[in-house]
């Protein structure tokens, strides 16, 4: 009797313990699911404000491929419409990342009617709960910069090869003409010319690199453009006299600007050197400063206008004159020792000073280059 009671009690205790264990296990599983599912939602909510603030195309995608949050750039780029992803290749990548529960990176071409394909880099991050973070980077700028660097290196290689090759040939010619003093002198003069040309090219490459890397207004001063022009003329006076070219000036009142005086002298000097190089003997070069209203605002600008009556520039070439190594007349540029970098340097200096450079030209009549800089206030100092 007591034995059966003990057995029955043991069975009842076992059932109770089993129920308790089962209840605990069920609650434990439920907690795991509760922690697992909302985790992705919590991350989504926390990241939403950041997604809306970023400048890149970014979005948070739910477990049914719906776009929960997206940055304005994602809509501008055209990968999102409403709450849907409209680029099939992107949607495939998102689904693959969700299936693998992994972070994936890929590149694709975004094709839209009427425009060039846009190269994109896609990064998809798995957040849990079927949610994904997608960041899209437009590679167009980087690819253009890479192409520009390759072109620049190729151009430098070509430009350096010409004087270096000439120096090599002339050095050999000097050694072979050792018995003829006249030939030695002729080859030595040409050797000196090519050496100077190579030095100028290297210096202008360094100057252009320095301009691109520096802040021209970091150590700015008040600059009197009359002084700038006089210094620029001084640098070119010897060449102008040798070519019998007359340089005239007219200075307007209160033509002051804020900037780096040395760089502004370089800009004007390059324009004067070009005017001399591309003009015939007995030509004239005129330099004028003015203070004029800004066409785009109520503020005033100061102008430096450099005009010549030289060979002029064809209309199709005027769009390219500020490109590196571009020359209007290659043979004339070679004779004068031009590097093809002068106008590129002028443009960089003007942009760094918040100004601009414009060109007007007509073949056979001459060219006019106009520099514009923000003008300092004409009001006298109250102190």
Q: What are the main properties of this structure?
A:
383 residues; alpha+beta; Beta-Lactamase; Helix Hairpins; Heat Shock Protein 90; 5-stranded antiparallel β-sheet; 10 helices; 52% helix; disordered N terminus
Model description:
It is a single chain. The protein has 383 residues and is an alpha+beta fold. It folds into 3 domains: 97 residues, 2-Layer Sandwich (Beta-Lactamase), CATH 3.30.450; 72 residues, Signal transduction histidine kinase, dimerisation/phosphotransfer (DHp) domain (Helix Hairpins); 162 residues, Heat Shock Protein 90, CATH 3.30.565. The protein is built from 10 helices and 14 strands. 27% of the residues are buried.
Low-confidence stretches: 1-13, 31-41
Main β-sheet description: 5 strands, antiparallel
CATH level-two architecture of the largest domain: 2-Layer Sandwich
- Strand content range: 15-25%
Q: Bin the helical content.
A: 40-55%
Distance between the termini: 118 Å
Q: In total, how many beta strands?
A: 14
Write the CATH homologous superfamily of the largest domain.
Answer: Histidine kinase-like ATPase, C-terminal domain
Give the topology, please.
Layout: H1 2-53, E1 57-61, E2 67-70, H2 72-77, E3 80-81, E4 84-85, H3 88-100, E5 104-110, E6 118-128, E7 131-138, H4 140-176, H5 181-213, E8 221-224, H6 225-242, E9 246-250, E10 256-259, H7 261-277, E11 284-293, E12 300-308, H8 315-318, H9 330-336, H10 342-352, E13 356-362, E14 366-374
Parallel strand pairs: 9-11
Antiparallel strand pairs: 1-2, 1-7, 3-4, 5-6, 6-7, 8-10, 11-12, 12-14, 13-14
Helix pairs in contact: 4-5, 5-10, 6-7, 7-10
């Amino acid at each position: 009797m007591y034995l059966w009671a003990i057995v029955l009690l043991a069975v009842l205790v076992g059932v109770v313990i089993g129920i308790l264990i089962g209840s605990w296990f069920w609650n434990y599983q439920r907690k795991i699911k509760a922690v697992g599912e909302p985790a992705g939602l919590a991350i989504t909510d926390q990241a939403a404000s950041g997604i809306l603030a970023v400048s890149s195309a970014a979005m948070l995608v739910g477990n049914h491929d719906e776009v929960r949050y997206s940055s304005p750039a994602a809509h501008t780029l055209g990968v999102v419409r409403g709450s849907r992803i409209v680029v099939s290749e992107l949607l495939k990548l998102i689904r693959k990342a969700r299936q693998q529960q992994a972070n994936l990176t890929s590149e694709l071409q975004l094709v839209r009617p009427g425009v060039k394909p846009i190269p994109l880099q896609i990064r998809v991050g798995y957040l849990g709960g079927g949610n994904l973070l997608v960041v899209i980077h437009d590679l167009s700028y980087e690819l253009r910069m890479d192409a520009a660097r390759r072109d620049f290196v190729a151009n430098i290689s070509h430009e350096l090869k010409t004087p270096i090759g000439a120096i090599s040939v002339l050095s050999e010619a000097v050694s072979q003409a050792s018995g003829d003093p006249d030939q030695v002198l002729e080859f030595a003069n040409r050797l000196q010319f090519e050496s100077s040309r190579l030095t100028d090219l290297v210096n202008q490459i360094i100057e252009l690199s320095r301009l691109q890397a520096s802040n021209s207004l970091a150590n700015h001063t008040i600059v009197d453009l009359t002084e700038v022009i006089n210094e620029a003329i001084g640098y070119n006076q010897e060449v102008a006299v040798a070519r019998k070219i007359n340089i005239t000036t007219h200075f307007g009142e209160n033509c002051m600007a804020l900037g780096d005086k040395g760089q502004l002298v370089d800009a004007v000097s390059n324009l004067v050197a070009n005017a001399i190089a591309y003009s015939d003997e007995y030509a004239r070069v005129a330099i004028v400063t003015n203070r004029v209203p800004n066409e785009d605002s109520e503020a005033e600008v100061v102008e430096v206008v450099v005009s010549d009556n030289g060979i002029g520039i064809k209309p199709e070439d005027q769009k390219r004159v500020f490109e590196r190594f571009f020359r209007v007349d290659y043979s004339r540029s070679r004779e004068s020792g031009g590097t093809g970098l002068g106008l590129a340097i002028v443009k960089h200096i003007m942009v760094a000073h918040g100004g601009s450079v414009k060109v007007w030209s007509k073949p056979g009549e001459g060219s006019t280059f106009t520099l514009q800089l923000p003008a300092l206030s004409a009001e006298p100092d109250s102190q």
